[in-house]
Amino acid sequence: MAALTLANPASRFSVLTVTDRPAQTPIWSDRLGWPVAGDHHITLDTRDAARRNIWASRIDDAVMHADRAVLLVAEGLGCAAAAWWARLSPRHYADRVAGALLFDPIAPQGEAEALLASPGIALPFPSMVVTARNRIAAPDEMQQLVDGWGSRLMIAERQRTPGAWQAAQRLLSRMTAAVVARDIDRGMALRGE
């Protein structure tokens, strides 16, 4: 698979991409010109609990074998699936994830809703929901996802723009700063400060 090659600070991360549409170009590639797949790429399968569990074990494997902290990049229903995985995985898996970029999340419906049900707690790592203004058809639903995951919301244009690549690098810089701040807070807590 092709590695996601981004300028600093992305070289600090092993990028794990999750899509819910195997035959189409992912949103991050359309909007930002990023490669279709990261260092590891896993297509979501929620046709039944067994396939969902196989998908989750592939995420576990990719995270545990990453040579750097993991940046999780997901789109659509893959965002809800990534949240499900993060909320229910043992802490030693989620601790290896530095943060997540969640593009145009979709709330699960029907059978997928039951398959991706998880506790209503914030994700155990910093996350940012990236969506276009025209994508927010149900603002209350989008805000519920953002709040439920403990994410920050970034409104970005749906079409690729000349400054999209620079905006993506700034976004990753902010994500890196959040990771550093989280690590400092953890260290201080361990020392009792």
SSE layout:
Elements: E1 13-19, H1 27-32, E2 40-43, H2 49-65, E3 69-75, H3 77-88, H4 91-94, E4 97-103, H5 110-115, E5 127-131, H6 139-149, E6 152-155, H7 164-190
Parallel strand pairs: 1-2, 1-3, 3-4, 4-5, 5-6
Along the chain, the helix and strand elements come as: EHEHEHHEHEHEH
What distance separates the N and C termini? 44 Å
The largest pleated sheet is described as: 6 strands, parallel
Percent of residues in helices: 40-55%
Please state roughly what percent of the residues sit in beta strands, choosing from under 5%, 5-15%, 15-25%, 25-35%, 35-45% or over 45%.
Answer: 15-25%
- Read across the widest sheet, the strand sequence of neighbours is 2-1-3-4-5-6
Mean pLDDT: 78
Structural class: alpha/beta
Low-confidence stretches: 1-9
Record field, number of beta strands: 6
Shape: globular
**Global Rg:** 16 Å
**SS element count, helices:** 7
Q: Describe it for me?
A:
The chain has a six-stranded parallel beta sheet with strand order 2-1-3-4-5-6, with helices on both faces. Helix 1 links the parallel strand 1 and strand 2. The protein has helices spanning 27-32, 49-65, 77-88, 91-94, 110-115, 139-149, 164-190; strands spanning 13-19, 40-43, 69-75, 97-103, 127-131, 152-155. The protein is globular, with a radius of gyration of 16 Å. By secondary structure, the protein is α/β, with parallel strands linked by helices. The chain is built from seven helices and six strands.
